[in-house]
C-alpha cells in the first residue's frame, strides 16, 4: 500500500467510527434492529475498496475502526468484533474481482454478493456470541437476516453513489 492508500484507510476508519457510533444506536432506538449499523459498515467498506483497489484496506478499516468504536459504544455488547470479522471476510471475498471495482456487471455482482454474505455473517456472529440468550438457530434465521437487510440497503445506496463518482472522475483524484 502506498502512503495515499494508508491516508485513505485512515479517513475511512474515521468515517467507520462516526457512522457506527451515531447510526448504530439510532437504529436500535428507532427500530430495535441493527440495519443502520450494517449500512454504516458496508457503506464504508465499499467506498474504501473502490477508492484504493487494494487487498487489506477493508480489513484495516474494519479492525481499526472497530477497536476505536468499541469503547465509544458504552453499554452495548462488543458487537464491533463481529463487524471487524465481517470486514475481513468482505476483503477476502472481494479478491474475486481483484479489488478492481468498476461499474461493470461482474464487479457490481461480486461487490453485492460480498456485502450480503459479510453482513449475514456479521449477524450470525453477533447473534450467537453477543446477544443475550441468542441461539445458533435464532442467529441463522432472524439476526443474520436483519443484518442481511442492512447489507442490501448499503448496496442499494452505495453502488449508485460509486457509479456517480465514477462518472464524475472523482477516483482520478488519487495520485499514487
CATH architecture: Orthogonal Bundle
Low-confidence stretches: none
Tally the helices: 6
Beta fraction of the residues? under 5%
| CATH topology annotation | Arp2/3 complex 21 kDa subunit ARPC3
Short structural description:
This protein is mostly helical.
General description of the model:
This protein is an all-alpha fold. It has one domain (3-173): Arp2/3 complex 21 kDa subunit ARPC3 (Orthogonal Bundle). The chain has helices spanning 3-30, 35-52, 57-72, 80-93, 105-129, 136-167. It is globular, with a radius of gyration of 15 Å. The N and C termini lie close together (10 Å). The model has no long low-confidence stretch (mean pLDDT 89).
Keywords:
single chain, 176 residues, mainly alpha, Arp2/3 complex 21 kDa subunit ARPC3, 0% strand, globular
Set out the fold topology:
Elements: H1 3-30, H2 35-52, H3 57-72, H4 80-93, H5 105-129, H6 136-167
Helix pairs in contact: 1-2, 1-3, 2-3, 2-4, 2-6, 3-4, 4-5, 5-6
Amino acid at each position: 500500500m502506498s502512503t495515499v492508500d494508508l491516508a485513505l484507510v485512515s479517513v475511512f476508519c474515521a468515517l467507520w467510527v462516526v457512522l457506527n457510533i451515531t447510526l448504530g444506536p439510532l437504529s436500535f432506538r428507532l427500530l430495535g434492529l441493527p440495519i443502520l449499523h450494517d449500512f454504516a459498515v458496508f457503506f464504508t467498506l465499499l467506498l474504501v475498496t473502490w477508492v484504493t483497489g487494494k487487498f487489506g484496506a477493508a480489513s484495516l478499516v474494519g479492525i481499526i475502526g472497530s477497536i476505536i468504536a468499541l469503547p465509544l459504544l458504552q453499554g452495548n455488547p462488543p458487537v464491533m468484533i463481529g463487524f471487524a470479522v465481517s470486514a475481513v471476510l468482505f476483503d477476502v471475498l472481494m479478491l474475486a474481482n481483484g479489488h478492481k471495482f468498476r461499474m461493470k456487471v461482474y464487479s457490481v455482482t461480486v461487490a453485492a454478493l460480498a456485502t450480503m454474505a459479510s453482513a449475514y455473517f456479521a449477524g450470525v456472529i453477533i447473534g450467537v456470541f453477543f446477544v443475550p440468550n441468542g441461539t445458533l438457530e435464532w442467529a441463522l434465521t432472524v439476526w443474520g437476516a436483519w443484518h442481511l437487510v442492512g447489507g442490501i440497503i448499503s448496496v442499494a445506496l452505495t453502488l449508485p453513489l460509486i457509479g456517480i463518482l465514477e462518472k464524475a472522475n472523482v477516483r482520478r483524484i488519487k495520485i499514487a
